[in-house]
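Reply to dn_fold:

You asked what the input looked like. This is it:
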Amino acid sequence: MTFSLVVRDGERFGVVVSSSSPAVAARVAHLRPGVGAAASQNVTDPTLGTSLLAELADHGDAERALAGVTGAARNARSIAHRQLTVLGRSGPGFVYSGAHTLGKHASATAEGAVAAGNMLCGEHIPGVLLDAYSAASGELEERLVTALKAAVEAGGEEGPVHSAGLAVVAEVEWRVTDLRVDWADDPVDRLAELLAVWLPQRDDYVRRGLDPASAPSYGVPGDR
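and this is what came back:
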């Protein structure tokens, strides 16, 4: 029901995801500035993404974080239903796909990236995500959306997708990009349209948070 890509780009971390279910990014995408990123998918338990980031914040080892969460006694009864990915400040990403992961599922890892999916049209989809991201140019957000488009064009899920999301963290304590299409017939195209609106303004909104006196005005009534 879901395929995702988690990447590291210098000090930035990003997650892009799509699914046949609604509001997928609200449940799946987990990021913490300066720490790492994770995806918790397949019969999703969002607390597992939070736990992975807490482990990473504690010791910084992505493989150890994944082992700690999947091996925790509190998760023993349900962990076989989950698919998790995690990426830290260095090294490759890591994946766990439980025995009850839905349908055709697969994953692919690289230095600074990890992709995984379930209910896929084929096991090639995570590799498509990685390859398309590596070949893309532009801002991190643009490369992530390019990868998601390539995965959909390569077949994506077994059925049509209806939601998609993109999130990026950088040097500040909030998501510098957080875009979602929670229900649509063409969510990945809609996500690309949202990004085209957002990206030229992204850094200005960071400035508004850090130094409002120097931030630009957008001419909105009541806005300086």
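The chain has six helices and ten strands.
Hope that clears it up.
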